């Protein structure tokens, strides 16, 4: 039932170090595209005063999330919900932050559009949307490994691919969000922190 993603074990610590600077001390954090569930159980342990709401559109992924959470016995992880970022139906719940790891490049652009629209609607002024993954930057050479990865993604699905930061910023602006931070991460990844404008 439990699924494993080797990358989650490698990147969860560095991601959590950034989350420690950006998340509120307590409240509810919605994780979009939780995948195997390994990230959310680690974050729930690292941030016990935060209530974590995992989500994923895939039924097998949700079963894995539930299995990991059950084994960990954490009381601050809610049951995973079915959520398609590209869909029109989002839970109208009060969230104090949204975290999304490794979804933007492995999904159609409509998923990023849905994510930003929901963040603009659900988040209060100053609340963060935190994205992790590879991005293309102007005036910054793209690592060959990311170029190769981008090509492989587009072979798997022409709607996938590593997105330009500028495109993400424009999408955020259109939904009342503004990028406040860019953090370089291991393996040529980035964390982008957007916050709801006043």
UniProtKB/TrEMBL annotation:
It comes from Altericroceibacterium indicum. The lineage of its organism: Bacteria, Pseudomonadati, Pseudomonadota, Alphaproteobacteria, Sphingomonadales. SUPFAM superfamilies: S-adenosyl-L-methionine-dependent methyltransferases (SSF53335). It holds the Pfam family DUF938. This is DUF938 domain-containing protein. It comes from the Bacteria.
């Amino acid at each position: 039932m439990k699924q494993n993603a080797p990358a989650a074990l490698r990147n969860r610590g560095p991601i959590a170090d950034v989350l420690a600077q950006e998340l509120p001390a307590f409240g509810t954090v919605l994780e979009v595209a939780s995948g195997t569930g390994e990230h959310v159980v680690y974050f729930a342990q690292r941030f016990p005063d935060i209530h974590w709401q995992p989500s994923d559109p895939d039924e097998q992924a949700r079963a894995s999330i539930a299995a990991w959470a059950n084994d960990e016995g954490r009381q601050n992880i809610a049951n995973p919900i079915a959520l398609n970022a590209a869909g029109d139906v989002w839970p109208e719940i009060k969230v104090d932050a949204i975290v999304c790891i490794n979804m933007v490049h492995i999904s159609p652009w409509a998923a990023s559009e849905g994510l930003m629209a929901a963040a603009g609607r659900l988040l209060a002024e100053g609340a963060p949307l935190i994205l992790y993954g590879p991005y293309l930057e102007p005036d910054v050479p793209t690592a060959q490994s990311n170029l190769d990865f981008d090509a492989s993604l587009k072979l798997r699905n022409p709607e996938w691919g590593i997105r330009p930061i500028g495109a993400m910023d424009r999408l955020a602006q259109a939904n009342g969000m503004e990028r406040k931070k860019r953090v370089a991460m291991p393996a040529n990844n980035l964390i982008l922190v957007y916050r709801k404008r006043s």
